[in-house]
Amino acid sequence: MTIFKNKQIALIVGGSGQFGFSLSNFLLKENYEVNITTRNKEKHKKNWTKKNILAHNLNIYNLKSIDRFIKKMKPNYIFYFAGQSSPAKSFYKKKETYLSNVVGCKNFLSILKKYKSNCKFVNAASCEMYGKMKGRIKINSPKKPVSPYGFSKVKSFNITKEYREKYKLKTYNAIIFNSESFLRPKHYLIPKICIAALKAKKYKTKTKFGDLNISREWNWCDEQSKYLIEFIKNKPQDFILSNGKSFSAIQMIKYAFDYLKLDYRKFVSSNSKFFREKDVRKKISDYKKCLKRNNIKRVDKIYGKFLIKKIIKYYSKKI
Q: 74 and 135 in one domain?
């Protein structure tokens, strides 16, 4: 299964999303053999082959298949990104959300436990675990999820932590705040904002949004991947992955329309039809403590208006 000798082997489970591609680039630069599992191997085959990434089909619910796969590959790192990742979709995809985020994660951990593996396992946790709360989100803040997605992330977080504390596996929970890239699906807020601005410029199109008063820490995925790798060079732990830079939806809309020299008020409106069920209005991270205890200095270059400009430039060739 592996074709490179004397290389560290990384496995990204559910690697066809933005984090899969972003992490792959960083790991390849550090001379890792990079393997990705996906439900649709053919979809991105050309990109993977070009980058020397090995793609595999693997059923994350089949323990025997995972057992054979891990036994043969002997990975040094496993990144678990296979979970259904949309809070909004989780309300009508409850079973898929739970199975992919919880059962799949536990299956890999149980196989690592079976072989008493020294492999580092990284679970993609989420700020959605904390639900509605005032103040900055800390690792130990009360977890009161408001969506099936958030609930499933709490379960996988606790399981990953349990396997570290009870069975001494090298497991990590990366509590990830909103992350953007060119691979972010278009229906997510930031790409939707950028596309709306471009359509307004080109076609005078008007766009309806949900709650424009929400605030998030919108991170650039490549910067998130860079610091995720820095964290896992340290001892197994739970950590917050975010830049701490919060912007409201209306601020991001203004950045997009200002960049194209447009008055957003002529093209943008808020409609309750697009409000997300039980959405959390504001999320702010207490990210600095995690950096400090790991002696990591985080410097982000792509956020706010810079992030908006980058995505607009990308979509300007496609609209």
A: yes
